[in-house]
Amino acid sequence: MSTPFETVPFGQRLADAVAARGPLCVGLDPHAPLLERWGLPDDVDGLRRFTDAVVEALAGEVAVLKPQSAFYERHGSRGLAVLEDAVAGARAAGALVLLDAKRGDIGSTMDAYADVLRPEHPMAVDALTVSPYLGPGALQPAVDTARLTGSGLFVLARTSNPDAAALQSAAVGERSVAQVVVDTVRGWNTPGWVVGDPLPDVGGVQDLGSRWGATTGSFGVVVGATLRELDVDLDGLGGPVLAPGLGTQGGTPADLRRLFGTGRAVVPTVSRDVLAAGPDPAALRAAAARWAEALG
Questions:
Q1: Residue 283 falls within a domain, yes or no?
Q2: Which of 31, 16, 10, 39 is nearest to 278 (CA)?
Q3: On the CB side of 97, how many CA atoms lie within 13 Å of its CA?
Q4: Predicted TM-score of the model (pTM)
Q5: Residue 52 belongs to what H/E stretch?
């Protein structure tokens, strides 16, 4: 069973999971073509059979499972029931669960979205992806909940979709939008910092606290593995980097090393390249193992 939220912060639990299982995060993306490839119907029964197979095969093997909420929501309340069972099953098998929902709103609405980080929630997860584009202060309810419960957040910063730069590279004064996001998350990982305070000075040196094996902050950013170059400064982030885009989108382990080096807490995400090996459980495990070996 996963460690209770209030005992150990997410950042440390993530570092411990990576030390025990490696850094691989596998996404659960049960879209209709994948269900068809598995020989399953695109309905709640097919969704459940797919999800149960992935959780059974991988929840005891990989550090993080990342269900994409939209593929469960499209099946209505019964689809969310499948997701709820999957989250509980994955955490019981020792995997951390990062809910990929990309929530972002203001006030009480953001507070309600963040309830999924509370241990008493029926679908309590370890961490949640969030969108910052209503402003850093809009995410404060989620930050407060994560701090209270020892959960984590991953904030979209410099993502892997091809047209992301249209917004994320836009200038805000002397910084890009993406850099403002990274700097804000860096502040969240600094004790006592709140939105509106001057950003903590890290002196331009890489943050040793963000390396695996040391205590890691619970607030991370999403930076794609498909970037031609790393155009945001991650020094002093103090938390993990979620790196999607590996496999089908074209990202490789070499790209991770090129972009992030070896001194950062990076969580590489693979979905379709692992899931395509199903429905055989042994084939799923073998595909995840190949990626884990490639990631070193």
A1: yes
A2: 39
A3: 30
A4: 0.92
A5: helix 44-58
Burial of 273 (0-12, 13-18, 19+ CB in 10 A): middle
**pLDDT one-digit tens code per residue, 94-140:** 999 999 999 999 999 999 999 999 999 999 999 999 999 999 889 99
- Which sign does the torsion angle of CA 136, 142, 144, 148 carry? negative
Question: Does the active-site annotation cover 66?
Answer: no
Q: Kindly state whether residue 1 falls inside one of the protein's structural domains.
A: no
Dihedrals φ, ψ of 154, to 5°? -120, 120
In a domain, 5, yes or no: no
Q: Which of 37, 102, 118, 147 is catalytic?
A: 102
- What CATH number does the domain containing 216 carry? 3.20.20.70
Task: State both tokens at 248.
Answer: 């089908």
Q: Where are the beta strands (DSSP E) in the chain?
A: 25-28, 64-67, 96-103, 127-130, 152-158, 171-172, 175-176, 219-223, 241-243, 266-270
**Structural domain tally of the chain?**
1
Give pLDDT < 50 ranges for the chain: 1-5, 203-210
Judge contact between 78 and 41, C-beta under 8 A. Answer: no
Can you tell me the distance from the alpha carbon of 152 to that of 216, in angstroms, rounded to the nearest whole number?
A: 11
Helices (H) and strands (E) in the chain, counts: 12, 10
